[in-house]
């Protein structure tokens, strides 16, 4: 996935240097990268030139970061108003943000703190009460080689894998891998980025 931070790092520029070239401050560049402020059209045009990236691609990356930042900011309020599958979806999406290298570290850290507001144990316990074969502690978030995200229950053989859908924030690339296995080598990465055998 694209991000303004990755575009800047590919050009081997610091936030300070980009700020200097744009006639602004490092703090503003940092806030733009984290999606905390809107990117004005004239600044976007100049930033696209500085980073040697098409303006449309830069704006798409910024829009994605704004959506992530907004979701992370709203998460504590949303957590009080959602139940069931929505809790799992929000917790899964925030876990995805935590391990997404395109997301600036400060925003990944905030996503981790926001995820703590979503208590998935009661939801999984309720699922277990209707289906005794569910291991309420065994669910993980996994990402396949195409960038698709899944909720994985490794306690089944083979592991049960369900595609994660999260409104407009999930940008699926290609078709979901299906419900039997994650594409690739038979392993997956959990919500903490650890490689696990499937």
Give an account of the 3D structure.
This protein is mainly α and 198 residues long. The chain has eight helices and five strands; from the N terminus they run ααααααααβββββ. The chain has helices at residues 4-10, 15-22, 26-33, 41-51, 55-79, 85-99, 105-115, 120-130, and strands at residues 140-143, 149-153, 160-163, 187-189, 195-197. It has a three-stranded antiparallel beta sheet with strand order 1-2-3, covered by helices on one side. A two-stranded antiparallel ribbon has the order 4-5. Helix 5 packs across helix 6. It is elongated and about 55 Å long. The chain starts with a helix and ends with a strand.
Give the strand tally: 5
Mean pLDDT: 74
Class computed from helices, strands and strand pairing: mainly alpha
Number of domains: 2
Number of helices: 8
Q: List low-confidence stretches.
A: 166-196
Order of helical and strand elements: HHHHHHHHEEEEE
Tell the overall outline. Answer: elongated
Approximate strand percentage = 5-15%
Strand order of the largest sheet: 1-2-3
Largest sheet: 3 strands, antiparallel
Rg calculated over all Cα atoms: 19 Å
- The CA-CA distance between the termini, in Å, is 25 Å
Topology:
Blueprint: H1 4-10, H2 15-22, H3 26-33, H4 41-51, H5 55-79, H6 85-99, H7 105-115, H8 120-130, E1 140-143, E2 149-153, E3 160-163, E4 187-189, E5 195-197
Antiparallel strand pairs: 1-2, 2-3, 4-5
Characteristics of this structure?
two-stranded antiparallel sheet, mainly alpha, three-stranded antiparallel β-sheet, 5 strands, 8 helices
